[in-house]
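hey can u check if this looks right to u? its 166 residues, i copy pasted from the old doc so theres a chance i mangled smth
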Amino acid sequence: MTTPTRAAWYGGISVGESALNNACVAGFACDDKDTAYRLFAGTKFNRWLGIELGGTYFGKWDRAAGQTEAYAGDVAATAGADLGRNSAIFAKVGVSYTQTEVNGTAAGLATGKESDWSPRYGVGGQIGLSQNWAVRVDWDRYQNVALPGREEDVDVYMLGVQYTFR
């Protein structure tokens, strides 16, 4: 009789860069990139499929004489392939709940707070340093992030560490 395989849970932290797409308006100073931070946790149901939960702080962007700050909480299904001891490549697809706040004084700049659900997807990989520790790289696209008066996409590029509980 075989013993059922216990699901391995993992958690980690990443840091990188977020980029707000289509944020710049001609004639205004613009900085549509900032440092982003992410906490994540997940599990694999088998060798190929899993689920991941996360929270991301996108940072602050200066755009059109105003400032935008954004956060997201998300859940994503993962699918991938193991490449050896604690190493893998994977894709993610899911949903995120984003909150944004825009402040500024420029005429015509829509300000205020917005929050909404939107799709998100991404790809990543990890290289195992040991049975439990891995270095991880991710790219994620958060689509249609709600801002006052509009929606924009946010790309996030991350490098982090992951610990797998075995």
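The chain has one domain: 9-151.
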